[in-house]
Amino acid sequence: MNRSILTTILFLLSCTVQAQTNYVSLSTSKGNILIMLYDETPNHRDNFLNLVKKGLFKDQEFNRVIKNFVSQGGELDETILDREKLNPQVPVQRLAAEIRPELFHKKGALGAGRNDNPDKSSYLDQIYLVEGKIQTDTELDTLEVKRGIKFTPAQRETYKTVGGLPRLDQDYTVFGEVVSGIEAAEAINNVATAKNDHPIKKEGFTIHILSKKEISKIAKP
């Protein structure tokens, strides 16, 4: 699919979500990625914004990149879980899931990573951008039966035209989406990686929270 067409489709899809309050920009070696955070997931939104304000996502890196799957940043599972094992007296910190069926894993979705816990609660500081792939009706039908979920006609059309990772739906919290700069996200997802999925060349990023003035300019020509 032509990238300019894809960018337009992603923007139009974002317009189907109720107007949002907060946007962030990821500055990467491949270009800037503009992300809209969902007001429908306030705890994940606020946690993320607070971490950005504290400087956690300054000069961070995509440390786990799987082609046609996700590009992940923040702390790795191993780092988090090893620290928790070494400090059993410290209460485990997780963010309660905010899974909403209308917020799904289309290409460009921003999700919160987690370990395999029954509550599907999220790590505080692990994020991922969905790359995924184009789906077929047969694949979506199979997932509906296997997972006991139901995709709306709009979600089906999105998965069949834009792509994504429907098998993650209703298992992980999605709390934002790319509204521009999808080309940069694609480029990051295509970098060369080692066997542990870590990019061979560091792929860093810094996150900037847009001001109200900057947000007001987004929809303007």
TrEMBL record:
It comes from the Bacteria. It is an enzyme of class 5 (isomerase). GO terms for molecular function: peptidyl-prolyl cis-trans isomerase activity. InterPro entries: Cyclophilin-like_dom_sf, Cyclophilin-type_PPIase_dom, Cyclophilin_A-like. Its EC number is 5.2.1.8. Residues 20-202 form the PPIase cyclophilin-type domain. Keywords: Isomerase, Rotamase, Signal. Gene3D superfamilies: Cyclophilin-like. The keyword Isomerase applies. Residues 1-19 form the signal peptide. PANTHER family: PEPTIDYL-PROLYL CIS-TRANS ISOMERASE-RELATED, PEPTIDYLPROLYL ISOMERASE DOMAIN AND WD REPEAT-CONTAINING PROTEIN 1. This is peptidylprolyl isomerase. It comes from Pedobacter cryoconitis. The lineage of its organism: Bacteria, Pseudomonadati, Bacteroidota, Sphingobacteriia, Sphingobacteriales.
